[in-house]
Amino acid sequence: MEWDNFDYSRTKEMRNNFLPLEKVKTFVDLKDGQTLMDVGAGDGFYSLAFASYNPGSVITALEPGRNGSVLIKKQISELGVKNIRVIEESACDEHDYSPYDKVFFSNVFHDLECKEELLKNLSKSMKKGSELIFIEFRKEVEIGPPQHIRISEKELESMIAKAGFRLVASERLQLHYMHKYINEQNR
């Protein structure tokens, strides 16, 4: 998918209507001082929300698209946010995830062509006790990405378990589900 010119207006509308921020923040449960990587940060909505509610935390917005990274940097500047850094790279590039307590994916994992490689990279570099958090469209709902690229809850759990993570929390919303996994590997 081409991300450089992605239009985030529909994403914003969908998020505002169907993904209540308070539910997402409660589910993610980021504590002040923890580190979080927002993979496929898009327009920076969640990165900015986590940063503002947790000023002692460091948030990394990983965004491959020029349009998204420009939006994030503009908002960081306008709001004077000091605890977000932006990396303009793909999630399919190899990254060191060891500095992060939490790695967050909101409606992006289904789009990645490198799911298996990414999970291997996460597994080998994340420290024990760190968390993966996913928000994805439920497979059976009418709205969202094409059915053939969606990932069911059972499919996601199976993929993540093979990488050494255990499901510790899940919640179903009107159109989405949220899963939280913990790394049980010693690194």
What does this 3D model show about the protein?
The structure is a single chain. By secondary structure, the chain is α/β, with parallel strands linked by helices. It folds into two domains: 34-89, Vaccinia Virus protein VP39 (Rossmann fold); 94-187, Vaccinia Virus protein VP39 (Rossmann fold), CATH 3.40.50. Helix content is 33%, strand content 22%. The protein is built from six helices and seven strands; from the N terminus they run H-H-E-H-E-H-E-E-H-E-H-E-E. The chain has helices at residues 9-18, 21-28, 45-53, 66-79, 115-125, 153-162; strands at residues 35-39, 58-62, 84-87, 102-106, 131-137, 165-172, 176-183. The chain has a seven-stranded mixed sheet with strand order 3-2-1-4-5-7-6, sandwiched between helices.
What separation lies between the terminal Cα atoms? 33 Å
Number of helices: 6
Q: Do you know the CATH architecture of the largest domain?
A: 3-Layer(aba) Sandwich
Shape: globular
Unreliable stretches, pLDDT < 50, 5 or more residues?
none
Structural class: alpha/beta
Estimate the mean pLDDT confidence. 91
Give the class-level CATH name of the largest domain: Alpha Beta
Quick one: CATH superfamily of the largest domain?
Vaccinia Virus protein VP39
Oligomer: single chain
Task: Tell how many strands the DSSP assignment holds.
Answer: 7
Main sheet specs: 7 strands, mixed
Quote the beta fraction: 15-25%
How much helical structure, as a percent, in the residues?
25-40%
Along the chain, the helix and strand elements come as HHEHEHEEHEHEE
| CATH T-level fold name of the largest domain | Rossmann fold
Number of domains: 2
Largest sheet: spatial strand order: 3-2-1-4-5-7-6
Roughly how many Å is the radius of gyration? 15 Å
